[in-house]
Amino acid sequence: MSTDSTGGPSRNERRQARAAKAAAELEAMRKKRARRSILTVAGIVAVIAIIIALLVVFSLNRSSDSKVDVEASSSDHGLVVGPDDAKHKVVIYEDFLCPYCGDFEAATRDDLAELAAEGKVQVDYRPFVLLNQAGPYSELATSAFAVVQEKSGDKVAKEFHDLLYENQPAETGPFPKAPELVDLAVEAGAEESAVKDGITKLAGKPWAEAATKAAADDGVQGTPTVILDGKQFQEGNTVEEYAANLVKKVS
Question: Can you point out the beta strands (E) in the chain?
Fold first, then answer.
């Protein structure tokens, strides 16, 4: 190794060392950016896959080959609002994580509540677990709903049902945990001491599993699936059209 007058590396060697260090840092940065790009693409692909799956699920409900014929108030896994002698009976199969269910709920909630109060329609909400492939939230929320309904009654359960949709997470997360659902249950009117352990320990899981099996046995393939007066309702190509047409039919 050549040296300068002080005995250290020569100017040329120092220049070469700096160049080698810069090249190494540039290569490390390139590899880091490449890894980041791969992760970003993988994340985008995963999100697209979930969106496509949800679109397929919604489309399945409107398929002319898919028919679900059930009666309102005929299940042990639902929440019924409105009188038995109402002119129209509506059954809504739903998943608390399904974004289309959230949109449908927002578009129909007030109208259906008003019509039920007027005695014109009876609505049977039947939550079950469909989107379990997206994570644990669907099961957790359905289980929590069952606990609240059992411990606090239908009125509080309906408020909790509505709050779950008002606070619905994206289908890709992040997902609320059990303590957050306990807070929503309390906001809905439940006593914390009555529902906390049940929600936290998934005490409603058997109910959720039974509701999911019942929906499958009924031929439900997607959410929201709506039954109007014993026949599957399929009028509408978008959630907005679907909701508006249903409200018009039962008004």
Answer: 79-81, 88-94, 121-127, 225-228, 231-233
> Which amino acid, one-letter code, is at 64?
S
**For residue 238, what are the β-bridge partners?**
none
Model pLDDT, residue 39: 52
Angle in degrees, CA 33, 37, 42, rounded to 5: 150
* Residue appearing with tokens 């249950």: 185
Q: pLDDT, tens digit, for every residue of 226-250?
A: 999 999 999 999 999 999 999 999 9
Sign of the C-alpha dihedral computed for residues 150, 156, 162 and 168 taken in this order: negative
Return the axis-axis angle of helices 99-117 and 239-250, rounded to nearest 10°: 10
Task: Give yes or no for a contact between 207 and 77, defined as CB atoms under 8 angstroms apart.
Answer: yes
0.85 exceeded by pTM: no
Residue 107 structure tokens: 């578009």
| pLDDT > 70 fraction of the chain, expressed in percent and rounded | 78
* Cα distance between residue 32 and residue 107, in whole Å: 46
Distance CA 54, CA 200 (A): 28
> pLDDT for 64-90, tens place per residue?
445 676 777 678 899 999 999 999 999
Q: How far apart are CA 245 and CA 172, in angstroms?
A: 29
Contact indicator for 79, 158 with CB cutoff of 8 Å: yes
